[in-house]
Amino acid sequence: MSKTKPEERKNHESICTKGKSILQLMESAVELSAGSKLSAEFFEKAAPALDFIGGQMSLSREQALLLSVMVNYSDDRNIRVRDVANHFDCKNITILQYMKDFDELERRHFIRCSRSRDSQSYRVPMEVLNALKNGEAYKEASHAGIDCDALFAVIDDLFGQRQENELTTRGLYTALRELLDENPKLEFCRKVRAVELDEDDFILLLFFCNAFVNNDDDNIQFYELDDLFDSKLAFRRIKSSLCKRENDLFGLKFIENTGADGIGDRESFKLTDSAKEDLLSELGLNLKSNMRKQEKRLMKHEDLPFKKMFYNPSEGRQVERLTSLLKQENFVKIQARLKDSGMRHGFACIFYGSPGTGKTETVYQIAKATGRDIMQVNVSEIKSMWVGESEKNIQALFDRYRVMAESSDGKAPILFFNEADAIFGKRQEGAERAVDKMENSIQNIILQEMEKLSGILIATTNLTQNLDKAFERRFLYKIRFEKPSAEARKAIWTSMMDDISDEEAEMLSGRYDFSGGQIENISRKHTVDKILYGDEGGSIERILEMCDSENISEGQDKKRRIGF
Length: 564
Prior knowledge:
Strand content: 5-15%
Strand order of the largest sheet: 7-8-9-6-10
Helix content: 55-70%
Largest sheet: 5 strands, parallel
Structural class: alpha/beta
Shape: globular
Number of strands: 10
């Protein structure tokens, strides 16, 4: 690349840089460089802007240009070499001559590089963009002298970069080691640095500590470790050493298998209690509380309020039968008989029907009657925007459930998928879009887990026509919840409104084909009106008015004109 003479550069600078921010100069450099083929004439024109940018951030002229182009494309998390080449209207091989400059920008954290087996791409970190938007030159933050909470925030970010392939395994080790070396006064850093571990085991120990501190994860599975290592050979070596309990972390009492007495599950692992107390004392964690984190995620059966339920005869008999089955004394006998017969011994159930017919409340009441806690699934937390994360989340969900079921004194909790349409829907054939592939992967994992389920899974749905046939076959008990009969509606009206007469309850049940949920809505509004307006607010006329306004869709249908 050509260099301009000092007197020429000074003349250009007075014209090009005066009063402009770094971001404005980057914009000028990008505009000049578009289609320039990186010619000598371009560098001569752009030199003042590039030299100013480089001077502010200690970058060479070439690095300042590449960073400017990257910032221009910063809305893309996958900027490739060909994108940069296309911008300059030159060949990829031309850009490859500047790879040392890319590497230097990456080393200094101006850009991040994601590497897979057959490609690599770049992105500009948000902290760089924020500095530039504020008119400041980006300067890498120092992590020296931070406290233990901040240390683990940085550790979590480094493992996140590795998961996104933005750090190699070697790069992760180097960054973690430098971080600990920069903070020798922290007890955690001092103790870990004093232990003689090879690179892979050092990364492994930090991963276990980070998973416990930042993710409440006390049940590490092999699939969570796979992404830590560039080499499949290295992962297989680690996996073998963990399976055989020959890994140094076992000998040093840093990790153990999950389950009773540390030997319950040979394929899942956690930090030992002594490691938590010894390494993580600075964080002030309530370790006894943390050891019961999984339990805290449960809805405890004793906390569920009792509610009298009203069913139509058929669904009532089925609910009663299922409740009897799930009582512990019966459940144990039935599971043992099924195991002896070589049959699947888990129980998957689905409650389906119109909204407001009591499906969710029935799950709560079954849990209360059988003394079983509920592990309720939050589908929005499972589904992640990042490819691969959702699959890991759903797998981790079932792994957590297994641990809970095994550690609950033999009384397995209920794994509850409420409004399961979003996750039990029909699989997409020939899926091409990433989101469709992700949905299919999630569903395949659930299907596999339902096959080997040893506990209790209950799902509720309003839309059975969207249910995949493969899921339908795996539900042993299928209970349809229909709107209550006139007799059941009368009982619901009477139970929820003790100030209406038997005749009024019969009239309301005959006139309005409501679900139990709709009747409950009216009952709540009725209670509010009585509080506000006394007996006048609780009149039958006011109740009828509430009933007439309950169905929004029906009211709209009556008013809708032809053609709309």
